[in-house]
Specification:
Blueprint: H1 3-21, E1 28-32, H2 39-55, E2 58-62, H3 67-76, E3 81-85, H4 86-94, E4 108-124, E5 139-142, H5 149-160, E6 165-168, H6 172-180, E7 186-190, H7 196-204, E8 207-210, H8 214-223, E9 227-231, E10 243-255, H9 260-271, H10 274-280, H11 302-312
Parallel strand pairs: 1-2, 1-3, 5-6, 5-7
Antiparallel strand pairs: 3-10, 4-7, 4-8, 4-10, 9-10
Helix pairs in contact: 2-9, 6-7, 9-11
Pfam families: NMT1_3
InterPro entries: TRAP_TAXI (IPR011852)
Organism: Qingshengfaniella alkalisoli
Length: about 325
């Protein structure tokens, strides 16, 4: 065979293989994130854009109500991808997601570890509030978007710690503005760090980032599906040292029916170059293959399981892989 014909034949074969590899792939995709001003929106929009660019598809992040709504959107296929935390994921599987009570959202699969969501409290320095125990009776506390991880768990945590409050909801940017305008006393954040709304507040005014005491931390860990966490001192200019906190793991999710080769390619883009992800958001320092084992709730998408087994020597049992 002449060289020209060989090259042409090779090109045709490569094109055919590429077409075969992409069989069933969607032409576009959506990643369910959360409200603007929160970490989910920045992180989710970032990896959506990265995947779209690398795979030559149309895709992007979508503003949602956060982890609970993302489980519903991905389960029904209204969004191909989303992000959730382990607490809301468990509730969704059990049929206690408030968005659709009784519906077991078993068609949302884990695809890669994201980061831990610390729970933290912020107040204006002018308020004089420097500890949870100093939050005044009937304080107006912003808990984030309704149905979010923060809104689901932080009020219960405040109840556990004996705080009496008036509950407020809204997007993180909006709540930050309300705090600055004196319409809120405290914001209870559950978001990857640094939280954009807190970073913005620091630029505009003086704030107190309030840590839990050892006793408060222990009480919360005993009562909720969370673990110990320290917010590093370099996270915010306000912090003079690490701040004691608690956290819950986040995972990216996909509709379980998406093609295996498509999800494997998406996971490869996100997990194969951590530096690119950290450039999107510093919370992605935890978006590394070895953290695959932090998922003990959701079934794995077979495409994601394949990637982690082949690239991270992951020990994922068959009974944790969708369709196996």
């Amino acid at each position: 065979m002449k060289l020209g014909a060989l090259v042409a034949a090779t090109a045709v074969a490569a094109t055919a293989a590429s077409a075969q590899d992409r069989e069933g792939w969607p032409e576009s995709f959506t990643v369910g994130t959360a409200s603007q001003g929160g970490t989910y929106f920045a992180y989710g929009s970032g990896w959506a854009n990265l995947v779209a660019e690398e795979l030559g598809l149309s895709g992007g992040g979508e503003v949602t109500g956060g982890p609970m709504q993302n489980m519903a959107l991905v389960h029904t296929g209204e969004a191909q991808f989303g992000m959730t935390t382990m607490g809301p994921a468990r509730e969704s599987l059990e049929g206690t997601n408030p968005i659709a009570p009784g519906l077991q959202m078993t068609n949302a699969c884990a695809i890669f570890p994201m980061y831990q969501t610390p729970f933290s409290v912020t107040a204006l320095s002018s308020s004089g509030i420097t500890a949870v125990s100093e939050i005044p009776e009937g304080a107006r506390i912003g808990f984030g978007p309704a149905g979010s991880t923060s809104d689901t768990y932080f009020p219960l945590m405040m109840d556990t710690l004996g705080v009496n409050y008036e509950r407020r909801n809204g997007g993180w940017s909006d709540l930050g503005g309300q705090l600055q305008d004196g319409l809120l006393d405290v914001i209870a954040f559950a978001a990857g760090i640094p939280v954009p709304a807190v970073s913005q507040l620091e630029v505009q005014t003086d704030v107190n980032i309030i840590e839990f005491t050892e006793e408060e931390q222990a009480a919360l860990i005993e009562a909720f599906p969370i673990s110990e966490f320290e917010i590093p001192a370099d996270t915010y200019t306000t912090l003079e040292g690490p701040a004691r906190s608690v956290s819950m793991w986040n995972f990216a999710i996909a509709n379980c029916e998406l093609p295996e080769s498509f999800v494997e390619a998406v996971v490869d883009v996100v997990m194969s170059d951590n530096e690119r992800m950290v450039n999107i958001h510093r919370a992605a320092r935890s978006t590394v293959p070895e953290n695959y084992d932090k998922n003990n709730v959701l079934m794995w998408h077979p495409g994601a399981a394949k990637w982690f087994k082949e690239n991270a020597d992951a020990d994922i049992p068959d009974d944790m892989i969708f369709g196996m």
